[in-house]
Amino acid sequence: MPPSRKRARRYDPDRTRTAVLDQFAQVRRAVAGLSPEQLALPARPGDRTVRELTVRLATALSSVSRSLELPEPRGAKPELTPVAWVLMPAARADRTDEETRALAACHPDPALLFDEVAAGFAAAVASASPDRLVATPAGSMRLGDHLVTRTVELIVSTDDLNAATGLDIPYDRQALAAATRLLADALAERAPGGSVEVRVPPFAVVQCVGGPQHTRGTPPNVVETDPLTWVRLATGRAGWAGEREAARVSASGERADLGGLLPLTS
Predict the structure, then answer these.
(1) Cα separation of 191 and 132, whole Å?
(2) What is the pTM assigned to this prediction?
(3) CB 136 within 8 A of CB 84
(4) Tens digits of per-residue pLDDT, 188-204?
(5) Which of 53, 97, 175, 231 could form a disulfide with 19 if both were Cys (CB 3.0 to 4.6 A apart)?
């Protein structure tokens, strides 16, 4: 099926940068208080530990700083949009996990790594143009777009950390909004159409899935959930059937079953 032709959503680069910094600061404070026993706890997904989870989160930001230290390719064009980044197959997952475990072994105290990353990241992005190209493992992106993808990494990892440790690390509202909208747009890209309306109040509404479109009034196929449940569904942290049974998702209409389209990041 061809990709949708909808205009790409625009994100305010200053608000996105602030959201990334604020969410990282929330996690940084929590990581500083983790005990060795908590760092050894299992964390989703897979068989990683909390220590490995925190190290991977730190590298999600340090990679931006390292890219900004390199010369910008002259005459190059961005190869990836934020939506394309979400929908890329996770072909590098095994390699990334191996690298994370090796790095975690070198950082028995992740709090020190977080301090180092926070200082380097803030300095690197403070004066960089959102249109500057940065290299990622999947291809080059505009810095402003890449920072939007960092909100997904931060929100998902914060949720994983809360689930593993029982902590209640806050979610920055702007970071959660950006992550929710990006994942909703990725669903609309994966299943273009207008027969189903997906609502994630107060942040996102998208139409998707081919079939009869509605033009006025309440659409015949509606899915609605909250932002964190949507993030979990889109990233495979929760299953469609289970969330519907728990009444965290409402779905009405014969085309409103999104179970076959989720998760988006697998």
Answers:
(1) 31
(2) 0.92
(3) no
(4) 999 999 999 999 999 99
(5) 175
What is the greatest pairwise CA distance in the chain? 58
- Beta carbons within 8 Å of 246's beta carbon, 6+ residues apart: none
Let me know: does 50 contact 167? Beta carbons within 8 Å: no
The per-residue DSSP string of 27-61 comes to: HHHHHHT--HHHHTSEETTTTEEHHHHHHHHHHHH
Q: Which secondary structure element, helix H or strand E, spans residue 142, and what is its range?
A: strand 139-142
CA angle 63, 54, 235 (to 5 degrees): 80
Query: Cα–Cα distance between 221 and 54 in angstroms, integer?
Result: 39
Identity of the amino acid at 164? A
Q: Is 89 exposed, middle or buried (0-12, 13-18, 19+ CB in 10 A)?
A: exposed
The region of weakest confidence among 105-114, 245-254, 255-264 is: 105-114
Nearest to 111 by CA among 27, 41, 43, 37: 27
Query: For the chain, where are the alpha helices, taking DSSP H only?
Result: 13-32, 36-39, 50-69, 82-87, 93-105, 110-126, 143-165, 173-190, 227-234, 240-245
